Each structure stands twice: as structure tokens, then as C-alpha cells.
Amino acid sequence: MLDKTIYKQIFKSSFDAPIDVEFWDGEKVSYGQGDPIATIILHEVIPIKDIMAHASLTFGEAYMDGKIEIKGNLQELVKIAYDSKESFLNGSKFSKLIPKHSHSENKSKADVQSHYDIGNDFYNMWLDPTMTYSCAYFVSEKDTLEDAQWNKVRHILNKLHAQSGETLLDIGCGWGTLLFTAAKEYNLEATGVTLSQQQYDFVSNKIKEEGLESRVHVYLEDYRELKDTYDHVTSVGMFEHVGKENLGEYFNQVNNLLTENGTALIHGITGQHDGAGVDAWINKYIFPGGYIPNLAENVGHIIDASLQVDDIEPLRRHYQKTLEIWTTNFHKVEEEVISKYGERFYRMWDLYLQACAGSFEAGNIDVVQYLLTKGPSGTNLPMTRSYIYHADVASGVK
Question: Is 356 a residue of the active site?
């Protein structure tokens, strides 16, 4: 059968580590030497023309639908597929042009709400108590996920060298952990914006519960509509949503929102190689309109926006570990998720979390913190970066 012949070639070129494959007709084939890290079970024929058109989308949907079953380490399977230059995830014969996406304000709002407005209850099942849905910062092997998320927030605020009484804007504020920490521990007047109704309601209620109306503010608003300026701007896991065509506008707006010599800490997923920046399956099911820029793209836009770089810190291993813990947490609530959202939804998110962990482990993607100044680099910052680590210790970053 031609389909099976092509499948065998795909598997042979995609995995450098040993795997087993069970085909729909019962045939079993082993690839590589040694004990297999995983067994791929194909319960039915998936048309080769669909794989050739969009490999990750086709395999992702097949996994969601139960047409493909993985026994073993899914994260490691994805990792070795990225390691192989001839893999269906990397090979040029499977690559397609980057699709164009609308990023109007209405479309951006719809995209964000499709992901973040699944419901706070869903994220509460498997995130840590801070409700932080971004890369944590592990200083010690003993750090819990919650420890590491607090580390991340304080590490960001310490990099800014923020002074009591100054103002801070958080673009894409999530469930507000950074906002509340900035106000309560650093005595900043903190403002957040989000396009997620669920996140806006959560933060608004917490502001009232904690009596912080004079020090913490949140708006359900597109960051492009903001007019005020702030001493500091933070943005965590945000620029991945703006789209390739809007990255320049994003960094220009960061510049517009800063006071002269103000500082910004921009934290986001970044590639450290040339690549499409778009995965068809993730774009359809997880992050509509998403785009992962590479390091050169972002630095180019930073320069074009008249911002200057103070520090760049890659945190790839930290996000890999964050995703691995999220996956463990997610597996613990499997029955609850399936009961509420269905098995297909569970398989979708399980694939997403493990595939992302594998992608970070392979170095296919990274996450980077950019410390930026509006004005000459380092103005209003200490002469060396040692201030960051002294402040980390003082603020409890372990």
C-alpha cells in the first residue's frame, strides 16, 4: 500500500531515537536501536495528501480524535522529532508559507477570549495558586511551581529597578499577580489591561476585596488605545498574540507608553533560529492568530521603536520545567476535565502541553526577557546587573 510506504519513510526520517509503530492492519515496525521511547499506534489510515499539506495540523487532529495513540513519552517524541532535520516538523518538503491573520482590535479580542475565556475554573484546575499562566523562574531545584511563579514576578519587578510611588502598566495582565505584587510589595501604582472578560472580572473583584482601588486599576481594553504614560511597562506572554505584521506597532506603543528614560520588561516566547513562527494546529485550536517571532525580529523592532536594550535573558529551561509541571497537574485532573469538557478537549490540551515542553526541550522555541529603556541604555539603572540579584535575594527570590 502506497500510504504505508510513505508513512514508513516519514517515521524513518523523523525520529533518531528508537520508536515502535503499529499500523492499522496490525503490522508492527521498529525504528532505531534499543528500547523504544514510545509506541505510535495508527488506528486508521490518515490520507498522505493531508499530511503533506499540513503535517502538524493533520497529526494533531488525528491525536485529538483518537485516530493516533501514543504509548510512552509524548514530550520526548516531539523533542526528537524537532532534533531531526528531516522530520515532518522540520523538513522543507512539509513546510508551507506563513498564513496571514487579521489582528484588528476586534479580531485580537476574539482570539484572546477564545483561549483565556474557557473559564477561570478550567485554569484553576491545574495552574498554581497564583493563577499565573506563563513561564516560571526556578532558582532552586526545591522550588515548587508556586515558588517559581512568585520568583518570576519579583525578578521582573526587580529588573525594572522601580522606586516607591512610581507608576507601572502591565499589558496583558492575566489574573493580576504582577499587578498586586507591584502595588503591595513595591508600592507602585499599578495598571493592567486585558482583552479577557474572565480575567478582567477576576482582577476587578480582587481589587475591591483587598481595598486597593487607589493603587491598582484594570481595564478591559486594547493596549493600542491607551494614551497615558508610565514609569515602567511590563508585558508577559503578550507579543505572541499580536501577529507578525503588528510587532512593530507593539514595540512602538511600548515606547509611547513610557515616560522619558522609563524602563520596560518584555517577556515572551521567542525563536532563536529562522523559522515560520506559526504552527497550524496550535493556531487553529489553541492560540488563534498567534505568531512566535525570532530574536532578530524582536531586536530589529526594538531598535526601530527607538528603544534601547539593557539586558536579554533566555529562560528556555524554565519554561520546559513549567510545562512539565503543568502536564503533571493536568494529568491529575483528567477525569474532571473529561467530565466537564469532553475527551477530545482533554486530548487537545494534553498534546499542547507536552508538545510545547518537547519544543522547548529541543530548542525549537525559547522564552526571553528583554529589559528596555526609552532613551540611552541603562539610564536610571545601576551600572551593573548585580542590582537585580541583590534585589532578588532581598525580595525573597530563592
Answer: yes
